[in-house]
Amino acid sequence: MTYKIIKALNKLRSSELHAILQYMNQRYAIEEHCKKTAKMFKEIAIDEMHHAELLAKRIESFGGIPTTLVDTHIQPYETILEAAKYNIRLEQHGLNSYNDALALCKKHGDHETEIILTKIIEREKLHVMKFEQLVYMEVGE
Fold first, then answer.
1. In which element (H, E) is residue 92 found?
2. Which of 8, 22, 49, 88 has the fewest CB atoms in 10 Å of its CB?
3. 42 Cβ contact list (under 8 Å, min separation 6)
4. Which domains does the chain have, with CATH numbers?
């Protein structure tokens, strides 16, 4: 049981590390000409850092070693709209992974991890909403 949960938490941590790098890279690219959006990307990246830290602490509590591997490469983009759409997909993929991990924890009666994951899921949903608002503003609908 513990091995499966550590593996699932490390997969989530790897995704969080990817999101941090992705959003900070986007922030650097637009900081000069779109300060408000750059600030939002940075704030979300910092939130992802907090998630990665929560996951690391939980992994360590099981006697595991938190991964430092990033699950994929940084995706380049041409426009803020493209970046926001990519970020929505990234967050939705993350939500699916969090829900899978949550189901695993429920199956094995790991209530403490359930609480942590549930809190992170709520924050991830907020990230999706922020990126969706950005798409809406960029498209102008």
1. helix 80-107
2. 49
3. 23, 24, 27
4. 2-139 (1.20.1260.10)
Contact between 118 and 102 under an 8 Å Cβ cutoff? The reply is yes
Name the phi and psi angles at 70, rounded to 5.
-95, 135
Q: How far apart are CA 92 and CA 127, in angstroms?
A: 10
Q: Rounded to an integer, what distance in angstroms lies between the CA atom of residue 63 and that of residue 127?
A: 30
Q: Please report the sign of the dihedral spanned by the C-alpha atoms of residue 48, residue 51, residue 57, residue 58.
A: negative
State how far the Cα of 25 lies from the Cα of 38, in Å rounded to an integer: 10
One-letter amino acid at 13 equals R
